[in-house]
Specification:
The chain crosses the membrane at residues 12-36, 42-67, 79-99, 111-135. InterPro entries: Bact_2-comp_sensor_kinase (IPR050640), HATPase_C_sf (IPR036890), HATPase_dom (IPR003594), Sig_transdc_His_kin_internal (IPR010559). Keywords: Kinase, Membrane, Transferase, Transmembrane, Transmembrane helix. By secondary structure, the chain is α+β, with helices and mostly antiparallel strands. The protein is 64% helix and 13% strand. The chain has 2 domains: 6-147, no CATH class; 187-359, Heat Shock Protein 90 (2-Layer Sandwich). The chain contains 10 helices and 7 strands. A 5-stranded mixed beta sheet has the order 2-4-5-7-6.
Length: 362
């Protein structure tokens, strides 16, 4: 049964076989120009080239058999050297016989001369064998390299998806916990509204195609659904403002990139302030990169390390950015000043959805 790569093998074999022998024939013809006046010698060269070309097919089947059997390279080349010499002797004998028939003369035939002349043909076939094994080795190395890169991309993609799916249960758990708190505090109408908003958010989330990224516009729509739920919980204590440029709206960002950052801001800052606070989300293009800032009022300026340790939000976001863009292509920085805490993201400017990690230039 033919293997799936049989067409590729045939496509690559024939151009190399015909092109290589054509080049060899051209070189031989140029070298034979000084003897062009001797028709007998020219005929002998032509016959020798033809028989060598046919002999290379016999050698091809031998080389392919040795390669498929996994015979060590040195041993396989040794076999080919012996067979090449035998084929060289056969080519020399055929050349002599054809030369005798073509000239209608009786030329002396000496075995010692035939065995000596066979060395030239044998060396040509030896070179053909070495080239065959060299090409096969190169193809094997390239196949292994491609397979390794594919496996690495698959592993990175699986890790990225694991991080992505880790975020969603975290978000859903916190939302369900908020609904539970509303029920316990005897606020059934608000709980019902939150459930309706959560259903709308789920529909919005699940309607996205199976890609790693979405436009910032779509990501902000999901964020707005989430903030609508949180506004029901916090009322006037939660204020949100957006400052997003039109160009930034069309840029691609990882799905669920902003929600964990905003959740951190609400949980570890706004919720702890009796008067609440404001969250500001801004985005713009700068130096062919996407700059996103999420800033919030805080009850006190905690250390950056303290914020980094809060749940899976920041750590998971960093891990996702590293998997998706590479260790140095995307950055997440934290800063605090004048009662405000800010998370700053700088991402590569990408306008097409990333379906697979192989699409990301590295």
């Amino acid at each position: 049964m033919p293997t799936p790569d049989a067409p590729k093998r045939l496509v690559s074999f024939w151009p190399l076989q015909i092109g290589g022998w054509a080049l060899y024939a051209l070189t031989t013809a140029i070298a034979s120009v000084p003897y062009s006046h001797t028709g007998t010698e020219v005929f002998a060269v032509v016959v020798e080239l033809g028989t060598s070309f046919l002999a290379s097919f016999l050698l091809y089947f031998l080389c392919r058999y040795l390669w498929r059997k996994g015979v060590p390279l040195f041993r396989a080349l040794s076999y080919c050297v012996v067979v090449s010499y035998v084929l060289g002797v056969a080519c020399t004998i055929v050349t002599r016989l054809m030369q005798m028939l073509w000239t209608n003369t009786t030329l002396p035939f000496d075995w010692s001369i035939a065995l000596t002349e066979a060395i030239g043909v044998s060396l040509t076939l030896d070179g053909w064998s070495a080239l065959y094994f060299g090409i096969k080795h190169y193809q094997t190395v390239e196949q292994q390299r491609t397979k390794l890169l594919s496996m690495e991309a698959t592993a990175r993609e699986a890790q990225l998806l694991a991080l992505h799916y880790q975020l969603q249960p975290h978000f859903f758990f916190n939302t369900l916990n908020a609904i539970s708190s509303l029920v316990v505090s005897n606020q059934p109408l608000l709980a019902t509204e939150v459930i309706a908003r959560l259903a709308a958010l789920l529909r919005n989330t699940l309607s996205f195609p199976d890609t790693h990224t979405v436009t910032l516009r779509d990501e902000l729509a999901v964020v707005d659904e989430y903030l609508t739920i949180e506004r029901i919980r916090f009322g006037s204590r939660l204020k949100v403002s957006f400052d997003v440029s039109d160009e930034a709206n069309d840029a691609q960002v990882p799905r669920f990139l902003l929600q964990p950052l905003i959740e951190n801001a609400i949980r570890h800052a706004i919720a702890l302030r009796p008067e609440g606070g404001e969250i500001t989300i801004s985005a713009r293009l700068a130096e062919q990169r996407l700059q996103i800032d999420v800033a919030n009022d805080t009850c006190e300026l905690e250390a950056t390390d303290s914020y980094q340790s809060h749940g899976v939000g920041l750590a998971n976001t960093r891990a996702r950015l590293g998997q998706l863009y590479g260790a140095h292509d995307a950055t997440l920085m934290l800063s605090g000043e004048n009662g405000r805490f800010m998370v700053s993201l700088r991402l590569p400017l990408i306008t097409e959805p990333i379906v697979s990690l192989s699409m990301v230039g590295r």
